[in-house]
Amino acid sequence: MSAEALRALHVPGKPLLLPNAWDADTARLVEEAGFPVVATSSVAVAAALGYPDGEQAPAEEMFAAATRIARAVSVPVTVDAESGYGLSGPEFAERLLATGAVGCNYEDTDHAGGGLRPVEEQAARLAAVRGAAGRDLVINARIDVFLRAPDPRAVLPEAIERARAYLDAGADCVYPILLRDREVLAEFVRAVSPAAVNANGPVAELAELGVARISLGAGLWRAARGWLAEHLKTLR
Question: In sequence order, what E strands does 74-204 have?
C-alpha cells in the first residue's frame, strides 16, 4: 500500500492503533491479527540486533531490518527511524524509501550531542526529508520535550511551538511522546487541530481527545521478553 493509504488512516477521533513489531516474524503476526499497518519500535529492533537504543545500532543494520519487515507483509510499514542516524534529509529519505517503508518516526532528540535540537534546526531537517521524499513518505514528527519534564504543563507551550513548526515543515503527524496527562494532551490536540496527533494510552480515552494515532512503542516487545524470561526461569 502507498503512503497516501497510510496517511488516510490518520483520522482524529478514530485513531489508528499501531502494535509495534521488531522483526519479520512479529510483523507478520501483526498483519495476520488484522491490523492495517505495521510499525516498528527502534528499541526493540536494536535489541534484536544486539545493540542498545538511541542510534547505537549501525544505520545499515536498522535499514536492513526494515527491509526484511516490509518484504514480509502486504500492509504499509512505518519505521521508527529515531533521529535519522546522522544522515542528510535526501540520503535519509532515499535509504528509508528503498526499504519499502512508506512512513517513519523522526524525533528531535540529538543522540550525538544530547538534549533536543533547536526547533528551527529540527524544522529544517524535516523540510529536507519532505522535500526529498515528496508525498511518498508519511512523517510522524516526534516531540521529545515530555521525556525530560517532570511537569508536562510547564513544557506545553514549547511542545505546541515545536508541533506547529514541524507541521509547517511538512510533517503529517506530531507525536508528543509520553504525554499522558489527559488535560495537557487535550490542550495540545486542540492547539494543533486539525492536524493528526500520535499519543500513548487507552484507545477509547485517546479517541475522545481527538487523537489520530496510538503507538504501543516497545510495549509488546517488553511483554514478550518478560514472558520469555519468566518461562526460562521456570524451565531452569
Answer: 77-80, 103-107, 138-143, 173-176, 196-199
Give CA 173 to chain center in angstroms: 10
Closest CA to 36 of 204, 236, 213, 168: 213
| Domain 3-235 is found in CATH 3.90.1150.10 | no
Question: What residue type is assigned to position 182 of the chain?
Answer: R
Judge contact between 137 and 98, C-beta under 8 A. no
Give me the percent of the chain exceeding a pLDDT of 70: 100
Provide the residue ranges of all domains of the chain, joining segments of one domain with +: 3-235
pLDDT-derived band at 70, boundaries 50, 70, 90 = very high
Q: Counting Cβ atoms within 10 Å, is residue 166 exposed (0-12), middle (13-18) or buried (19+)?
A: buried
